[in-house]
Amino acid sequence: MTTFLDTPQQASRWCQRQRDSGKSLGYVPTMGALHEGHLSLVRRSVSENDVTCVSIFVNPLQFDNPGDLDSYPRSMESDLAMLQEAECDMAYTGDLETFFPDQSSTLDNSASLEPVNQRGLEADYRPGHLEGVKAIVERLFATVGQCRAYFGEKDFQQTLLVKDLANRHGEIDVVVCSTVREASGLAMSSRNRRLSTAALELASCLYQALVEADNAWRQGQRNPLRLEQLMQEKLDRPGIEIEYATVRDPRNWTVDTPTQLGDSAQALIAAYIDGVRLIDNLALGSNGLSKG
Ligand code: AMP
Fold this sequence. Notes:
There is one protein chain. By secondary structure, the chain is α/β, with parallel strands linked by helices. Helix content is about 40%, strand content about 20%. It contains ten helices and nine strands. A hairpin with a 2-residue loop joins strand 8 (about 265-275) and strand 9 (about 275-285). The structure holds adenosine monophosphate. Adenosine monophosphate binds near residues 30, 40, 41, 155 and 188.
C-alpha cells in the first residue's frame, strides 16, 4: 500500500521514522506524468532498499518558458496507481510554499552554478533551468535525508549537478539509471504525450542520430566535429529544429566541444519537434541503446 503525503514536512517525518526503525531508504524524485522510464527507477529502488519513496512535484523554478510549464502533463491519479503497482511505499507532493516556507515570497532561481560541469548546453539553451533544478533538489534532499537517490541518465547534465549536490550533502548516494526507450528508440519522456503520431515517428531521429555517432565511435571515429556532423545529418529533416547535437568528454566536461576525445564520450542532443523540446544522450561505445 502506498502512503500518500501532501506536504514535504510530513514526508520528512515519514523518512526519519523509516531510518529510526533501521530501514534503508530509496528515493526517486519526479515531476509526475509517470511512464516506464520513471518506473524503472522506482523498481530498481524497491529492489535495492527496504523502503522506497517518490516525490511528485512539477517544479516551476526549472521552467525557463511559462508556456512549457502550463502545458506540462499532469496525471496525479494514474501516477499514484502506477506507484502502488510498483510497490512504492510512500509518495509525496507539495506546493512551492510548502517546499520553501521560509522564502516563498522572495524565491528566485538566480543562485549561480559554480562547477564547470554544470555549464554549457542546457545551461546556455535554458537559462535558469539548472539553477531551478539545483534549488529544488537541494530542498528534496534536505526533506528526505539519508538515502539512495535514483536519477535517469536521460537528463545527463542533471546527473552531474545532483552528484555534486549529493557530495556536498554527504548523506545521499546517487544512482544513475540507464535510459528506457520506446520500441522506436525514442527516449521515454512525459513530454512525448504532447507529440502527434507523425511527430512521435520523427522524434525517433534523435535515437537514430545517437546510433549513427555510436557506430562511428565503435569503428574508431574520435573526431568530435565529425561525430557532430554525422548526428546533424541524421537530424536534418523538416520538422526538426536542432538546438545542439554534440559530444563531450563526460569525465572532463567542457563548456565547448572538446578538440579531441580520449576513451569516453557522451553524445548529447536537444531538439524541438512540434514545439516540444526533447533531449537525449548516449555514452558512446556503451550498451545504453537497449529499448524498454
Ligand atoms: P522527470 O519527471 O522528467 O523530472 O524525471 C524524473 C526522473 O526520471 C529523472 O531522474 C529522469 O532522468 C528520469 N527519467 C525520465 N525519463 C527517463 C527514461 N526514459 N529512462 C530513465 N529515466 C528517466
